[in-house]
Specification:
mainly alpha; globular
Amino acid sequence: MALTKEKKASLIKEFKVSENDNGSSEVQIAILTERIANLTKHLVENKKDNSSKMGLTKMVNNRKTLLAYLKRTNPKAYEETIKKLNIRK
């Protein structure tokens, strides 16, 4: 299932840094996390969908890169983001 406009808008509203923000690292990580969760549900039902597996791998790697950047540039925001999204230990 694709990410709806309403869900994406609520993620942006929750994770935005400033008033006009819709592309900061925190927002991108939140949107990617939601897309990863949706695609994981799809792959549980469709195990042989190899193109979706490849897309999932790319999204996970992109999120990993964004998390590394956020940790390097703003450790406090990194901690808050992973706590809100519950994606790390």
